[in-house]
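Hi R.,

Here are the chain sequences for the assembly we discussed:
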Amino acid sequence: AQTVTQSQPEMSVQEAETVTLSCTYDTSESDYYLFWYKQPPSRQMILVIRQEAYKQQNATENRFSVNFQKAAKSFSLKISDSQLGDAAMYFCAGYIIQGAQKLVFGQGTRLTINP
Amino acid sequence: KAGVTQTPRYLIKTRGQQVTLSCSPISGHRSVSWYQQTPGQGLQFLFEYFSETQRNKGNFPGRFSGRQFSNSRSEMNVSTLELGDSALYLCASSSTPSGGMYEQYFGPGTRLTVT
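And here is the predicted structure of the full complex:
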């Protein structure tokens, strides 16, 4: 079993600033992947970044980076130099490789970018 | 490569009717998953198909069914529609059912409204 919790329903940040979105992921499994997806008003779900649980190095994709603390069950997303186009719902999701093989999503965080 | 496509994009049905939604995965992707998104329940896994076989199923009633064709295209069917079935139905495709990266790429969704 796995649970994904996003405790921040809404966040806002000034354009060009940095913002961190929080997620906790709880599972007894050791082999899994974690993802952040972005869903803008168009409702198209877009993959932002992925992290393999076995990797100690945190993933980075341009302005997006994660801080994965496995023991603390924490998987946060940092967005640097925020842009207006970053405004969206952000979902944290987990995928157990030997389990049900499905994405389990958190409830989402709505990110607003203030110009 | 073309992305995941879903048809139709919008659908209005009456309670008691049945509906069929279609999903065409990214070329070369053999795994197709379906998710239901509602404001109250968030994103929930419906089922996953690989090589025309249902590998996993979420906790939904038997009114929800699906299938996958030899060209990896997938359909989901909901019979005897209820008001609570109103939702955004998202389809996602992936290139590997096990091993490797488990990135799922989503289509734009089908917005189903049941009246």
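The radius of gyration of chain A is 14 Å. Chain A touches chain B at residues 33, 35, 37, 42-47, 50, 91, 95, 97, 100-108 (CB under 8 Å).

Let me know if anything looks off.

Best,
T.
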